[in-house]
Amino acid sequence: LSVSAGSVTEGTGPGETLLPVTFTLSAPSGQPAAVSYAVAPGTAAAGDDYGGDATGVAVIPAGATSVTVYVPVVRDAVPEADETFTVRITAASEPEPGAGAEATATILNDD
N or C: which end of the chain has fewer CB within 10 A? Predict the structure, then answer.
């Protein structure tokens, strides 16, 4: 079980930009796989730069190899450096263990 996180351009104006985070099994399973995860700040601050829950559960459907969840990124017009946060797998159901795997997501500044 692995996790990968993308990068997105922050954006300006109303609304939010969504940053994809994908959880992937090495092979399809005959049963759903629940993946618990936590989002932790890096140089990006929770609430100021990205929103959403700090934890969550993603479910990879039976027969599939991956599922993607989206972390909302807060848009602003403030010139700043690119910022990061980490997504870590905290627990996973069978068929594959994956706790501890993590990926770094990047918010690309466009101001």
Answer: C
Predicted TM-score (pTM) of this structure: 0.91
Tell me how far apart the alpha carbons of residues 88 and 106 are, in angstroms, rounded to a whole number. 14
- Tens digit of pLDDT for each residue in 60-97? 999 999 999 999 999 999 899 999 999 999 998 866 66
Contacts of 6 (CB under 8 A, 6+ apart): 19, 20, 21, 105, 106
**DSSP string across 35-70:** EEEEEEESSSPBTTTB-S-SEEEEEEPTT-SEEEEE
- Determine the straight-line distance between the first and last CA of the chain, rounded to whole angstroms: 36
The residue assigned the tokens 């700090």 is 54
CB atoms near residue 76 (< 10 Å): 16
- Reading the block at residue 30, the tokens are 């005959």
